[in-house]
Amino acid sequence: MNPALSQIGAQMSHLTGVRAIMKDIIETLRAGEGQQFINLSAGNPLILPQVEQLWRDCTAQLLASSEYGEVVCRYGSSQGYAPFIKAIANDFNQRYGLNLTERNILITPGSQTLYFYAANAFGGYTSSGELKKIVLPLSPDYTGYGGVCLVPEALIAYKPTLDIDAEAHKFKYRPDFSQLSISEDTGCIIFSRPCNPTGNVLTDDEVKKIAELGASFNVPVLIDSAYAPPFPSLNFTPMTPIFGQNILHCMSLSKAGLPGERIGIAIGDKQLIHVLECFQTNACLHPSRYGQAIAAYAVNSGELAAISENVIRPFYQNKFTVLEDTLFEAMPKDLPWFLHRGEGAIFAWLWLEDLPITDWEFYQELKQVGVIVVPGSTFFPGLNQEWAHKHQCCRISLTGSDEEIATGMQRLAKVAQKVYQYSAVSA
Ligand SMILES: Cc1ncc(COP(=O)(O)O)c(C=O)c1O
């Protein structure tokens, strides 16, 4: 059957960004049976034994409690499971000296859903026909923002400035405040901190400046903290979560070991939370409660924050060091390659300046030597202008073993050398 689709139906039935590449990767892995690929494309976190044990223990606690029936056998409130909301409020009030009540918190089925609600509640056409933009102040950013808006023309991203340390082969993106435009036609602002795909952590000052720009036009700023402290604490550089009147602090438990349970958390002004909660009631009534119930134990005991800091963060930080050390050893010093500063998340981001082929072709070349990464051009949702840089980067996942990461980077270095050399000879 081939039903006629609405405009929204057609749009939502297409895979965008990295999801489209994932299809190619899955097909490559399937077709290459017998060939050993080093797959450094995954965004799926690894199962760390201590983290899995924490969730097993919390599940045992839930099963043994009288709460169990209430959690799984009954509908609940749209806002989320009350004991979990209370646990988050207590934890954040204590940790950051806030005055949160339960009205400041909303739980959603994963944080992707949260961005979907926000993008469509604050972005798109108003009843008077005015287009409210969803602004990504620094591109590249999370590819998932590309698929959340039902009005695609509302999404707009800004090119960053590049802070380059040529000698060290390192760089860092910074928001370009001389270009960034926030005005009456801005509906909301979204960015990830730490950032997927680059590992960038915007500084406190940069975040405050963006928040102030938003505040002057009454614009909500969603800070996607899927990798931030206190859980999963995947920041490798010190950072402070920033709160404020127009800030929605958005979290996820996916990188803290519960991606399957789909838990997103929004913290912010109660009127903003109310708008998103109503959206949620219409969309799905409420998020599943089992994951929230076990998470309440882990937050209340302090175990989730402790395991994030002592297990999850060092695990991925070490992977980044392996990757960085190998690249420094293996990459020719005279090539213009630059690794983004590894400030957090579970990825490394490599920029090959003046790469003679596109990122997609480079990805194909790497597949030939059994290495899979993600071509960088999928991470610029909303950036409509042409920019050569978009086709000169790739995202490398830190979810491989140390050996896979080292071997993968050695092979990548050889491919890079070949590609640049070939172009020098044929020029
Ligand atoms: C930056 C960022 N935001 C949001 C998400 C969505 O996470 P979830 O819906 O699992 O909470 C991801 C997933 O990888 C991410 O990397």
Would you mind describing this structure in some detail?
The protein is of the alpha/beta class and 427 residues long. The chain is built from twelve helices and 16 strands. The chain has helices spanning 7-12, 17-31, 49-64, 68-72, 82-96, 111-122, 204-215, 270-284, 290-300, 303-330, 359-368, 402-426, and strands spanning 38-39, 105-108, 124-125, 131-136, 155-157, 161-165, 170-174, 186-192, 221-224, 247-252, 264-267, 337-340, 347-352, 371-372, 374-375, 393-397. Strands 2, 3, 4, 5, 8, 9, 10 and 11 form an eight-stranded mixed β-sheet that branches. Strands 6-7-12-13-16-15 form a six-stranded mixed β-sheet. The chain has a two-stranded parallel ribbon with strand order 1-14. A hairpin with a 4-residue loop joins strand 6 and strand 7. The longest helix is centred in the last third of the chain and has 28 residues, at 303-330. The protein is globular. The mean pLDDT is 95. It binds pyridoxal-5'-phosphate (PLP). Pyridoxal-5'-phosphate (PLP) is lined by residues 43, 110-112, 142, 144, 192, 196, 224, 226, 252, 254, 259, 264.
Computed structural class: alpha/beta
Bound molecules: pyridoxal-5'-phosphate
What are the segments in which pLDDT stays under 50 over at least 5 consecutive residues? none
Shape category? globular
The amount of helix comes to 25-40%
**Total beta strands:** 16
Q: N-to-C terminal Cα separation, in Å?
A: 52 Å
Following the backbone from N to C, one meets helices and strands in this order, namely: HHEHHHEHEEEEEEHEEEHHHEEHEEEH
What fraction of residues sit in β-strands?
15-25%
* Rg (C-alpha, Å): 22 Å
Main sheet specs: 8 strands, mixed
Number of helices: 12
